[in-house]
Amino acid sequence: MDASEVEFLAEKETVKIIPNFSLDKIYLIGGDLGPFNPGLPVDVPVWLALNLKQRQKCRIVPPAWMDVDKLEEMRDLERKEDTFTPVPSPYYMELTKLLLNFASDNIPKADEIRTLVKDIWDTRIAKLRLSADSFISQLEAHAKLDNLTLMEINTIRAFLLDSLNCLYKLRSNQHPGSSKGQFADF
Amino acid sequence: MFITDIRKEFYEVVANQRVALLVASDIDALCACKIIQALFHCDQVQYTLIPVTAWQDLGTAFLEHKEQFKYFVLINCGANVDLLEMLQPDDDSVFFICDTHRPVDVVNVYNDSQIKLLIKQDDDLGVPSYDDIFRDEEDEEGADSGNESEDGSEPSGKRRRFDEGAIERRIDRQRAKREWETRRREILFDYEQYEYHGTSAAVMFFELAWVLTKDTKDMLWWAIIGLTDQWVHDKITHMKYVTDIATMQRHVSRHNHRNEDEENSLSIDCMRISFEYDLRLTLYQHWSLYESICNSCYTTCHFKLWTLNGQKKLQEFLADMGLPLKQVRQKFNSMDMTIKENLRDVIEESSNKYGMKDIRIQTFGVHFGFKNRFLAVDMVHATAALLESTEKDESNSDNFIKALDSLSRSNLDRLHSGIDLAKKKLMAIQQTVASCICTNLILSQGPFLYCYLMEGTPDVKLFSRPMALTLLCKYLLKAFVSSTRNKRCKLLPLIMAAPKDLEKGTVIVLGIPPESETSDKKNFFGRAFEKAAESTSSRTLHDNFDTSIIELKTEDRSKFLDALITLLS
Fold it and tell me: Which domains does chain B have, with CATH numbers?
């Protein structure tokens, strides 16, 4: 899976916008999108929100978790714990990037939010690396990681699988004839 | 006809149609094009962008596209010529013209169906009234023949008297008609004699965006660049520039007020436009201060930097300000912070002592990200250098697209390459000016000054383009005025000729009005060139949208000049 595919999936998340035009309810394959009235907030998927924002037809309201204080708390919690803490949104990284690239004038203190989200991401990726390292060095068969987001999994997936396959090849060459099927693909 | 409600009569008409955008090759047109493109993108209007450089280009482009389009938007071209006669369009084609060239042709003003002018009517136009120019001929002849047929049924005696009466009336009518025609010719001659420029097209389109409440800071910045282009290339008077700057300043404060809150400050990546009372040193923030002083028209002409004395005065000036030479020759961004802080005030104080009272000019600057700061003047020079770049294998439309791209915020490396080209162009201009003054290449021909750039002059290829040649001409005239002692010569206009196409053997000839503090920038060379070409049957091409720039065969140069001298003296 490519990072751009993950971003594409992230665009299905809903976000609140305030349109400046009016339109009746539209019926799309993915669901109905409520009637648009100027000045009244409505929930739409991120892809539509960004398109309307670029055409200057709406104002994007930042999601509730995209707030400096809340993100500071989350970052501190993440640094304290050894395991992964619950994330504000399963697509927090992609949403931050998309919203801050296209709608940074609607989001207060955008620079600080960007820094905080990056801090959270860095901490989690560091934990992921540590955990993968201990998984391989201690030759474990199972691992259970809670609260990982698709983007983080995607970052480590290719490397982890390739390295496990290489290790398997090395081990099966060391002990010819015996096949250890414990390193399965997932 | 003039459009009063630009939203209803222009935008809502074209919003559901396919539109052809014909854009002239100057920076103001490029900025206007960017603004209207952004508006079209918002509303998903289908359009085709066609860059045009001259009348012939416009004609060919129109012929290619007239089958597919009914609505044409012309930016900075087409107002000063009878468009319907030139293009011969179908009856249902509609032209929306937003042009800064004045005077607007009277046919364009009084045509109600096909030509719509996106020009403000209070823009100082002086269009002659309808009755002075147009007259319905058919009514009078109809009345005359009607009388005759009635008279024909009368008995013969009375008919003779009525016939005499009819003949007298006809003679009177013919005399009145002749008088009216002479007066019409005079009025038209006065109206079309001087060529000048009106409000920037980019500003017009920005006001359209404002009326639609779709104006963004990007569009405001483009409007400011369009206005600054008019000032840099000397198309509008200083008064008009200051008035338009004040209008733009109102928009800038409106945008800044809307987006800047005390606690929720805007991201550093957002665009911030600010009013600056900045120095008249071209590109000084992207160059070293010393280079900028040596290559800016204002400072060079005041110090007379082509003389040894001038160089000494410059050193004195720098010493007077307390700026060490090493700092001043360094790239501006690497200069000492302590020097940069009060630079503008220090320079203004010292330049007052040296007789340069207007070293500072009102302009705007933009600032986005941590290291991107540009003044409007910088952007104009960069984009102009890209638009007229004379690299090989680059067609006019390539240059147009590159210049158009450099105006977007996302194409910063294009903009920086434009700034480098602009630096080369400015240095070439200064060297050419210095050599022309030192070798006395400017000759006084009586009613005007004349200068010819020989083929072997370095960088002469750069000056085969109209905008670069205009800048050179302007700087040369200023330098000449500051260096000559002859009082009469200071009030003369300047005509400049430079080789344009070596294969075809043509030169580009350009005339600018005389240099003065209160100049109204009205140029009479358009008509003068036409008349001179006619009277000597020289092979000329009056192709450029500015009628004061023509192309002429090299061999016809001398007789053309002689005709001009006799015409203007």
Answer: 6-123 (3.90.1640.30), 270-427 (no CATH), 441-568 (3.10.310)
